[in-house]
Amino acid sequence: MLSRVADSLYWLTRNVERAENNARLIAVKLTSRLENANPIEETNQNWYELVEISGFQEVFDEEYNRSSDRNVLEFLLFSLKNPNSILNTITIARENARAVREIIPNELWESINSFYLKLKRHSHTPWTMEEVNDLCELVKKESLLFQGIVEATMPRGDAYLFMEMGKHLERAEKAARILDVYYHKDLECYQNKEIVEYHHWWSVLQSVSGHEAYIKTYRPLIKSRNVAEFFILDAEFPRSMIYCIHKVRNAFVALEDGHVEHYSESLAQELEHLTNDLIDFSIEEILGQGAHAFLQSFQHRCMTIGMHITKTYYLGEVVIP
Q1: What is the pLDDT of residues 260-278, one digit of tens each?
Q2: Rounded to an integer, what distance in angstroms lies between the CA atom of residue 312 and that of residue 201?
């Protein structure tokens, strides 16, 4: 497969995944405002958390004088200066898809093209806070439709495997970002601390659509320790860090037919080491060394794996936030 084709397929799924992640985070924050068990005013810092998860704080700070809800939403939804905005990621995904139209099913091209046109129409019209949730639902449904078409129509060859690597590496890294930002949030200052803490972790789980799956494993008790274990080490939840890294590694092994050549040795080693660490560590060991340190290290290792994928398969260089 030509490297430019592999590059387009890899970044096609990474960008669709980024758009969906943004939409999920925004939708949960909006729901949290309505259902917050602690009746205090939502602070600007609470909205700025979404900017921190996106990884483009400096760009936001240069563009806006304060982190109000509307500024954060504009930045994450439509800002052309934010490489991670939903509009920008889907625009890039559409161009990736256009470059490989002869490789992907026609239904997949029609799906991403329609997705882009709908977003473009929204970006050119004034929007209200009440309309944002509907827009987030649109993004999530279009992303799920995209993924469904891939799963239902794509042959399990090299094209599919590059798309698998892109999607799951993006998903793993974003899960670590979400958990890292929210894990150490100070909840001591709130009244009704237990209720607020429950709502806080409920929101974190909802950001990856994991609340129902979590409850089936841990029952109704939502504790920070259990949420961390669920995010990091639950091998059956499709948005956990260990599940996603397994999928990246499996796609790599399939691409290489189970062999490791000199050109792919560095990538193979990085994937093997990260996979083994996730298998070997217990949640107590992870939290004992410090959740922040572990999650920061995981994000860095995901970026390193991304760079090795780029180098191994001669993909175009793209800055990963």
Answers
A1: 999 999 999 999 999 999 9
A2: 39
> Tokens 């954060």 label which residue?
72
For 252, the token pair is 């790599």
Q: In what helix (H) or strand (E) does residue 25 lie, and over which residues does it extend?
A: helix 3-35
pLDDT in tens, 146-201: 999 999 999 999 999 999 999 999 999 999 999 999 887 766 666 676 777 888 89
Residue 297's closest CA among 203, 223, 232? 232
Q: Which residue has the tokens 């150490």?
A: 184
DSSP assignment of 132-188 equals HHHHHHHHHHHHHHHHHHHHHH--SSHHHHHHHHHHHHHHHHHHHHHHHHHHT---T
Q: How far apart are CA 181 and CA 187, in angstroms?
A: 13
Query: pLDDT by residue (tens digit) across 218-240?
Result: 988 899 999 999 999 999 999 99
Q: Which amino acid is at 28?
A: V
Decide: helix, strand or coil at residue 142: helix
How open is the CA angle 226-229-234, to the nearest 5 degrees?
120
Burial of 318 from C-beta contacts in 10 A (0-12 / 13-18 / 19+):
middle
What span, in angstroms and rounded, lies between the C-alpha atoms of 285 and 264? 31
**Pair 13, 166: CB distance under 8 Å:** yes
Whole-angstrom CA distances from 162 to 103, 250, 251, 303 are 12, 11, 7, 16
